[in-house]
Specification:
globular; mainly beta; 9 strands; two-stranded antiparallel ribbon; 116 residues; 5-stranded antiparallel β-sheet
Length: 116
């Protein structure tokens, strides 16, 4: 028996979500976060450098993240987390224990490229 998926949407609804690729250029600890997280600065090409909070400390060390391309939603409203303002939702998937694994292209693509 197949598991039921979420509510069906139109392709036009999907196009409203602006999902882009960017390269992480800076990573900082985020001790004020309720769950272990990093503060990221991500270069999205023509869209500029955006900030994001990401709960990715289980699988990733700060040093290995710089230069990594990631996928993010760039058109959600800014979310305030303590004194930090997150401008992008960095996308990831949970592993078997619920720890986030980043979504990222398998081949380098231009920063700012849109997922479609």
């Amino acid at each position: 028996m197949e598991k039921e998926t979420s509510e069906k949407i139109q392709f036009s609804d999907f196009l409203k979500v602006d999902i882009r690729v960017g390269t992480i250029i800076k990573v900082e600890e985020f001790p004020e976060a309720r769950k272990p997280a990093y503060k990221l600065e991500i270069d999205f090409g023509d869209l500029g450098i955006k900030r994001s909070s990401a709960q990715i400390t289980h699988h990733y060390r700060k040093e290995e993240l710089v230069g990594k391309q990631v996928i993010g939603v760039v058109n959600f409203p800014v979310k305030q987390i303590g004194k930090f303002f997150s401008e992008v939702l960095t996308l990831g998937l949970p592993d078997e224990q619920g720890h986030v694994v980043l979504c990222s292209p398998t081949v380098k693509v231009p920063n700012g490229s849109r997922l479609f």
